[in-house]
Specification:
It comes from Bradyrhizobium diazoefficiens (strain JCM 10833 / BCRC 13528 / IAM 13628 / NBRC 14792 / USDA 110). The protein is mainly α. It has 15 helices and no strands.
Length: 370
């Protein structure tokens, strides 16, 4: 009777997942992708709490105000989502090339070039209907950012230049171009203390989602992340990109156009960051100036790594990192910490994420082994 009861229970599918020896083998990798980044984030928070305690602050107060400043009120949520919008787009600038085995960290440069391109389009089309101007700004921002990162991909493919180094150097070139134009050819004579371009016009701003103070850039980011996920995991193009990323020699042998894949993916990646620049101009700043170099491109690198380069996972991670950034002001007011202290936390998180990379595939119980 005992054997029959066990057999019937197994047939009915009532065995718990933990008791199923094949469950962890089938789903261990998925659990790893959640467990390890989560543990890295928790470890970083603990270390940051110790760091703050050394300055006489209560770590529990730190965690409370971080949560409250990020998610405690509707105002906090709106601030968090507003900051998350550009992070989603700049994270895609790193996550998409990673499918090809490339490490692109130049999202900040593509954002700046996208912002300049979008502003130029808006100023050139003054007097046109707002919808026409806004569409032109989107197109210009995507093309500007896309070409900027595609340059890094081309240097890697045709000249053997490391894309990590070239994309980082291109950030500083983009910043120099922005400063040169904003302080020279494109400068608004009325901007005396802080050089800026002329305003794009209130009618050409993209505004906020009805009923909220969150701009439409969040919607752009969500659509871009979902589209990127579908492209990479549910299309022939995405499959070819992942094959090339896994083994570029095998991809060439089977006849895949590796050069085309690299240039296309880099253009799409840069286009996402360029769109973030357009959003910052059309939804926040209203013009181009040095305030655009706010570090969203660099934080996007952390978002992409914490999300394991998965375009869908980028969304919740960007919201989390946006919340940490949004809590900086409250930490300054309530605990007397510098507003930039959240940058220290982001750095600690990045170190923990990189260190935790060695754990993937090495946790025995997630492989169904004891």
């Amino acid at each position: 009777m005992t054997t029959e009861a066990a057999d019937s229970a197994e047939a009915a599918g009532t065995i718990a997942p933990a008791a199923d020896p094949g469950f962890l083998q089938r789903h261990g990798a998925t659990i790893e992708y959640i467990l390890i980044p989560g543990a890295a984030l928790a470890g970083a928070l603990v270390v940051f709490g110790i760091f703050v305690a050394m300055f006489g602050k209560n770590p529990l107060d730190l965690y409370f105000y971080m949560y409250y400043g990020a998610f405690g009120t509707w105002f906090s949520w709106q601030n968090t989502l507003t900051r998350a919008a550009p992070l989603i787009l700049t994270a895609l600038c790193t996550a998409l090339p990673a499918q090809l085995g490339m490490v692109i960290i130049g999202g900040e440069g593509a954002l700046l070039i996208g912002a300049l391109s979008a502003t130029s389009a808006a100023l050139a089309l003054q007097g046109m209907p707002p919808l026409v101007v806004q569409i032109a700004m989107v197109i210009a921002g995507v093309i500007g950012g896309g070409l900027w990162i595609m340059l890094s991909g081309a240097l890697r493919q045709y000249r053997g230049v490391n894309e990590t180094i070239s994309s980082l150097l291109l950030v500083y070139i983009a910043l120099a171009i922005l400063n040169h134009l904003v302080e020279g050819l494109m400068r608004d004579p009325a901007s005396l203390n802080k050089p800026s371009t002329r305003e794009i016009g209130a009618a050409n701003m993209i505004g906020s989602i009805p009923g909220t103070d969150v701009h439409w850039g969040l919607v752009f980011g969500l659509i871009a992340a979902i589209a990127a996920y579908i492209l990479i995991y549910h299309t022939v193009f995405g499959f070819a990109a992942r094959v090339a990323g896994a083994n570029i020699r095998a991809a060439k042998i089977v006849g895949l156009g590796v050069s085309k894949l690299i240039l296309t993916v880099c253009f799409l990646a840069g286009g996402a960051a360029g769109l973030a620049g357009m959003v910052e101009v059309a939804a926040v700043q209203g013009r181009t100036n040095a305030n655009l170099a706010a570090g969203y491109g660099f934080t996007g690198i952390l978002v992409a790594f914490l999300a394991r380069q998965n375009p869908l996972a980028v969304i919740p991670v960007a919201i989390l990192l946006g919340g940490i950034s949004a809590s900086g002001g409250l930490l300054q007011r309530r605990l007397g910490l510098p507003d930039a202290s959240v940058l220290v936390l982001q750095g600690i998180i990045f170190v923990f994420v990189l260190a935790s990379d060695a754990l993937y595939g090495r946790i025995g119980f997630l492989k169904g082994r004891s």
